[in-house]
Write a structure and sequence with these properties.
- By secondary structure, the protein is of the alpha/beta class.
- The protein has 2 domains: 117 residues, Rossmann fold (3-Layer(aba) Sandwich); 181 residues, 2-Layer Sandwich (Dihydrodipicolinate Reductase, domain 2).
- The chain has 10 helices and 13 strands.
- It has a 6-stranded mixed beta sheet with strand order 9-8-10-13-12-11.
- β11, α9 and β12 form a beta-alpha-beta unit.
- The longest helix has 18 residues.
- The two termini are 27 Å apart.
Length: 342
């Protein structure tokens, strides 16, 4: 395949290149794409250097597939141009996620919605991905009724600027900050912009995307999203109410058998998921399983995952893998296109 990675010099873009190489996708020609600041630089892939291109230059090659991680503005302009050229686009921005014509996919949960005719697929929000991977197998057994989630999201979720601010503050250096407050030795309950009702954009993403991915439009979700001084790895405390009662041992068995989930739940031996242990891993880690005795049919749990990998790059590549399993991707110039409206 000819594969474009748009936003290849960002944290997620670089991780996409790494995951593509690790999972041995059949990439015949890599087309790394970035902004004008990075054009002409090189990235390494499969033991070779590849020159960074403009999006227009990549389009001339008519790639078979493209992974986008360059933000909503870039995706709104260029994703339709790539699909019109016959390219299958997996977009990591929030631009297309709630478009009813565009599937929003976490392969462990709803790969069945993918069809070989799809030209644009949305990659969900990082926190949403890890939450639904952990909760969906429990939903299938007990029926999700309500989710109350508080997140503890690392600075890498903001990209290189977030990491730079944390490192600068720890070194006593002043720089153009990514956040409205100091992040080192601090917590900021503010991710994305505030809406009129007091939620942040990140909180609304978790609510709306969870409903769409699990096909539960009436699911009740309450989210509070917090930025924490951790480099990589998002954590969340989840309180989930089911329609039917559960047995804790059965919950553990379901999670142990669930694809993409690692159960790490032995608190008496100090075993529970932590960001420092999940960095560089593709699975979603779950622990601190316990019954909420204040509410019927309600479970407390703790969920942690690498936000750059399963929360972004790995999930996007898994979508590519599933599309490849549906068919052998023909040459892009022979593919039909489908209309996309924003």
């Amino acid at each position: 395949m000819k594969v474009a990675v748009v936003g290849c010099t960002g944290l997620v873009g670089r991780t996409m290149l790494q995951v593509l190489e690790e999972r041995a996708l059949p990439v015949k020609l890599l087309l790394p794409v970035a902004s004008s600041r990075s054009v002409g630089q090189s990235v390494h892939f499969q033991g070779r250097s590849h020159i960074v291109l403009t999006a227009e230059e990549a389009l001339e090659h008519k790639p078979d597939m493209a992974l986008f991680s360059a933000g909503s503005k870039v995706s709104s302009v260029y994703a339709p141009l790539f699909t019109e050229a016959g390219t299958i686009v997996v977009d990591n921005s929030s631009c297309w996620r709630m478009n009813p014509q565009v599937p929003l996919v976490v392969p462990e949960v709803n790969a069945h919605v993918l069809q070989h005719t799809h030209r644009l697929i949305a990659n969900p929000n990082c926190s949403t991905i890890q939450m639904v991977v952990a909760l969906y197998p429990l939903h299938r057994r007990y029926g999700l009724q309500r989710i109350v989630v508080s997140t503890y999201q690392s600075v890498s979720g903001t990209g290189a600027r977030g990491l730079a601010q944390l490192e600068a503050e720890r070194s006593g250096v002043s720089l153009n900050a990514a956040y409205p407050h100091a992040i080192d030795l601090n917590l900021i309950p503010h991710i994305d912009s505030f809406t009129e009702d007091g939620d942040t954009g990140e909180e609304r993403k978790m609510i709306n995307e969870s409903r769409k991915i699990m096909d539960l439009p009436q699911l009740r979700v309450s989210a509070t999203c917090v930025r924490v001084p951790v480099r990589v790895g998002h954590s969340m405390s989840v309180n989930v109410t089911f329609e039917r009662d559960f047995d804790l041992e059965e919950v553990r068995e379901l999670l142990q058998q669930a694809p993409g989930v690692v159960l790490c739940d032995d608190p008496h031996q100090n075993r529970y998921p932590m960001p420092c242990d999940v960095e560089g891993k593709d699975e979603v880690f779950v622990g601190r399983l316990r019954r909420d005795h204040s509410q019927n049919n309600t479970l407390n749990c703790w969920i942690v995952a690498d936000n750059l990998r399963k929360g972004a790059a790995t999930n996007a590549v898994q979508i590519m893998e599933h599309l490849l399993s549906l068919r052998s991707v023909p040459a892009a110039e022979d593919q039909s296109t489908s209309e996309i409206s924003n």
